[in-house]
Design a protein that fits this description.
The complex is a heterotrimer of chains A (525), B (120) and C (138). Chain B contains five helices and no strands. Chain B has 120 residues and is mostly helical. Chain B has one domain (2-118): Helix Hairpins (Orthogonal Bundle), CATH 1.10.287. Chain B is elongated, with a radius of gyration of 20 Å. With 138 residues, chain C is mostly helical. Chain C is elongated and about 60 Å long. The chains are: A mainly alpha (525), B mainly alpha (120), C mainly alpha (138). The interface between A and C is medium-sized, with 32 and 27 residues.
């Protein structure tokens, strides 16, 4: 932010005051004080603006500018949090816990960084794919809806108010349903409809749970609830238990925990290519963050969760996800659906870390949020590029695609190695933390199962690699060539990120351990 | 008898549970996409009642400060539910819009027929 | 359409009153029951009544689809911009207290501005939903 702009803003304020003759003392506008709200308001206003202008190219340019500003704000927030501790921003000047509070600590600053960085890297990819997927009259609306989805995801992450989470959750979800329904394939409509039904049930379950919490604690501010829930639980435990059950099930629908994942494969497979990349890397991650928040920071602070069957439930469902979804991925011919099932399996690893509930396990979950975002974005972007050039994502038709689209397939292989968890890639780091967490917990079998499930992913990734490199070039693959520069840029950056996060763990690992310490620390209190 | 008394006295919660369960049942059991949306809407409505029940204080009046009254109802649940109603409208409108598009594309809104056709 | 003379005449007669009522609800929203949301729905109800009686084409000559599609984001912009004005006075987002010469007037003005955004968006959205559904399947 240039000094010139700041001065002009201050000047405008001064001028407005002189004209109005207001008695209120002028306090200059200081950007760094308003970071928490700016990260939500900028995409919101940009969404309205793009919808007003109704020009696809202009809308893309605005979205690009916004998507590149947001990571800067997110980094500034992380630096502020590291320097000064928790940031609290009272909306409308109403002090918390009465008013809505935006509360940033290291946990959600980290998630904000993931979401905003994914948006920034994916944006160049949108230019060409949206031109192919969406007709011109709707393009500006599509970008407006993308910005609304971004607003919702960032808002869910940053807010400290439990009901505000519901509102932002629905903003982002509604935007996502629309994005998916705009896919070219007519099955996209069915996918969007299924997601709408499941997503709304999930959100309603969540809001029922928050209602119970409000009845017993009289507060909606999450920090305040965490303080009051202990005495409330001691007085009467059934409503708190009901709240826990409703919230966990509701959020599990949103994050596609194993038996509740039915909406996910179709949604990812038939959405416009850009939407798939963005959603696969962000939507479920933010839902996981909400689960972490409620599980550890709110319920964990009052109830000994290890005494409840919820830990075992999470553990069993996570392991079921890791194995069953991986096996389903093996039998899938459509590569996008295969990767979507792989996402369900990867979410299993994330929830496994939550079930472990020790520092290494949770650090594994947290670091996997970031690593999985990077590698799944790289994989879906690569497949999107193949779809863009060849028009099909059926494995049986894509023989020899590795020879006609070498760079794209190289990116796919690196992303695939990361899914398997080969050392040197991001996926290895997550699995390492999870394995250590399982052993620390004394669950040797679980550590073994983590390795065993990775072996299954070798099969489905290897199957496509074999088709792409060792089969003769098929009719469809002959049309292939590496995609335009703007798309290649996103693919290369996502892939580079996957390798970087696998090699240099000093930064990401430390951050994840700090985040885990805050979360598990809440559990220990 | 005591259990019955408890239900009659907390009739608002009984209605909430009835709406919630019947709404969810329609969503799961019906194969008609419009009926599913109706069920979803019913399910959301039950939540409105749950919140409003919590906001009612017996003998309380509208929360506008007045010398003649000392007991006020809690206004916050009403505000929350106003927001939830808006969210509900948006969801239902979008759901119906998608169903309208599905009908244009497939010529039917019965789930089993569509699944048979697409093999999803 | 020629036979329902009474319907046509009464519709024309009550249209201005519906709009007036919408504005009443809007401007009394900060002190009495009502506000931009309810007012927006009432105003959209006026357009819907008109198009049911006189046909959508007639309604769209007055309130075009382009106008409706502009109203939806415009209201959001007004709402968001009201919040941003608070920044210029150094207050937090949506803190209306600083807009007037005292906190009470500031809140009055702030609520009115925000509600103006709401009425525009809600009226636009409701009309847009109606137009979208009514033009399907023709």
């Amino acid at each position: 932010m240039s000094v010139g702009l700041l001065t002009s803003v201050a000047l405008a304020a001064g001028a407005a005051q002189a004209a109005g003759g207001h008695a209120v003392a002028a306090k200059p506008f200081i950007l760094t004080e308003h970071l928490p709200i700016l990260i939500v308001v900028i995409p919101l206003l940009a969404a309205a603006l793009t919808a007003m202008l109704r020009n696809g190219r202009v809308a893309w340019a605005i979205s690009l500018a916004v998507s590149w500003i947001l990571p800067i704000l997110a980094v500034m927030l992380i630096l502020q949090v590291e320097e000064k501790g928790i940031i609290s921003y009272a909306l409308g000047g109403w002090a918390p816990p009465v008013g809505i509070e935006y509360r940033v600590d290291i946990v959600n600053a980290f998630v904000l960084l993931i979401v905003s960085v994914v948006g920034a890297i994916a944006m160049p990819y949108a230019l060409r794919t949206v031109e192919l997927d969406i007709d011109e009259p709707q393009r500006a609306w599509f970008y407006a809806i993308y910005l609304l989805a971004l607003t919702g995801l960032l808002g869910m992450t940053i807010t400290g108010d439990a009901f505000n989470i519901f509102v932002f959750m629905e903003v982002s979800s509604l935007a996502m349903y629309v994005m998916i329904a705009m896919g070219r394939d007519r099955r996209a409509l069915i996918a969007a409809y299924q997601y709408l039904i499941m997503g709304t049930i999930g959100a309603t379950f969540y809001v029922i749970g928050v209602g119970f919490l409000y009845v017993v604690t009289g507060s909606l501010n999450m920090a305040d609830i965490a303080l009051r829930i202990g005495p409330a639980f001691a007085e009467s435990s059934p409503p708190v238990m009901a709240a826990l059950a409703f919230i966990v099930v509701g959020i599990s629908l949103k994050l596609a925990l194993f038996p509740l994942h039915v909406w996910l494969p179709n949604a990812y497979a038939f959405a416009p290519k850009f939407a798939t990349v963005f959603l696969a890397a962000t939507a479920t991650k933010v839902a996981v963050y909400i689960l972490l928040r409620f599980y550890f920071s709110i319920f964990g602070s009052a109830i000994s969760l290890t005494d409840l069957p919820i830990t075992e439930m999470l553990l069993i469902l996570s392991i079921a996800a890791m194995f069953i979804a991986s096996v389903m991925a093996i039998y899938e011919d459509n590569i996008e659906r295969m990767l979507a099932f792989s996402s369900v399996a990867q979410i299993g690893y994330i929830t496994l870390g939550i079930a472990l509930a020790n520092k290494s396990g949770v650090a594994g979950s947290v670091v996997h949020l970031m690593n999985h975002a990077a590698m799944k974005a790289a994989l879906f972007a690569a497949i999107g590029a193949i779809l863009y050039r060849v028009g099909t994502a059926r494995m049986s038709e894509l023989g020899g695609i590795g020879r006609t689209m070498p760079l794209t397939m190289a990116a796919f292989v690196i992303g695939g190695l990361s899914i398997i968890g080969v050392p040197g890639t991001a996926g290895f780091i997550s699995k390492w933390y999870l394995g250590v967490g399982a052993i620390e917990h004394g669950w040797w079998v679980v550590a073994f199962l983590i390795v065993a499930s990775s072996l299954i992913s070798i099969i489905y990734i290897g199957r496509f690699v074999e088709v792409a490199y060792f089969q003769p070039v098929s009719e469809a693959s002959e049309k292939g060539s590496d995609p335009p520069f703007s798309m290649m840029l996103s693919i290369v950056v996502f892939t580079a990120l996957t390798i970087y996060l696998g090699l240099d763990t000093a930064w990401s690992g430390q951050l994840a351990e700090k985040v885990a310490a805050v979360l598990v620390g809440g559990l220990a209190q | 008898m005591q259990a019955l008394d408890a239900i009659v006295q907390n009739y608002n919660y009984a209605i909430t549970v009835f709406l919630m369960v019947s709404g969810l049942y329609i969503v799961i059991a019906s194969g008609n996409m419009i009926k599913k949306i109706v069920g979803l809407s019913l399910f959301q409505t039950s939540v409105y009642l749950l919140y409003i029940s919590a906001g009612k204080i017996l003998g309380g009046t509208a929360p506008i400060i007045d010398r003649n009254y000392t007991i006020y109802s809690n206004p916050l649940p009403h505000v929350l539910i106003l927001t939830a109603i808006v969210v509900g409208i948006a969801t239902v409108a979008l759901g119906l819009a998608i169903v309208a598009r599905i009908h244009e594309e497939y010529g039917t809104i019965e789930e089993d027929e569509i699944f048979k056709e697409t093999g999803l | 359409m020629k036979l329902d003379l009474i319907l046509r005449v009464t519709t024309k007669a009550i249209l201005p009153f519906i709009l007036l009522f919408a504005l009443y609800v809007h401007f009394h929203g900060d002190y009495g029951p009502g506000g931009g949301f309810q007012a927006g729905v009432i105003a959209a109800g006026m357009v819907i009544l008109y198009s049911i009686v006189f046909g959508v084409e007639a309604a769209q000559r007055v309130i075009s689809q382009r106008l409706v599609a502009t109203m939806v984001p415009l209201g959001v912009l007004i709402y968001g911009a009201t919040g941003v004005i608070s920044f210029l006075y150094g207050a937090n987002y949506l803190d209306y207290g600083v807009l007037g010469h005292d906190s009470k007037h500031g809140h009055h003005l702030g609520i009115l501005l925000v509600e103006s955004g709401v009425i525009i968006t809600v009226a636009g959205t409701m009309t847009a939903i109606f137009y979208a559904f009514v033009q399907r399947g023709r």
